[in-house]
Amino acid sequence: MSLDQKFKEAEAAVKTLTKRPTDEEFLKLYSLYKQATVGNINIERPDMLNIKGKAKWDAWKSKEGMSQNDAKEAYANFVDTLLGKYK
C-alpha cells in the first residue's frame, strides 16, 4: 500500500472513533494533518483572544520543517494509536 493510500485510509478511519480524544491528541492530529496536506505553516498567528486558534497554530508551527511524507506517515501511525485507544 502506498503512503498516500495509507494516509487516506487514516483520514477515513479517524472519523470512526467512538470516544473523544484528549485536546492534546486533537492538536497533534491537527498539526500532523496540516503538515501532511499543506506543508509548513503559511498563515499568521491568531491574536491573543483567539485561544483555540493560537493553540492550533502553535501545534502546526511545531511541525515546521517536517516533510509532508513524514507527516503523512506520522499521522497514519497516530490514527492507529487512537483507534486502539478510542474505538
From TrEMBL:
SUPFAM superfamilies: Acyl-CoA binding protein. Pfam families: ACBP (PF00887). The keyword Transport does not apply. Residues 3-87 form the ACB domain. Keywords: Lipid-binding. Belongs to the ACBP family. PANTHER family: ACYL-COA BINDING PROTEIN 1, ISOFORM A, ACYL-COA-BINDING PROTEIN, ACBP. This is ACB domain-containing protein. It comes from Xylocopa violacea.
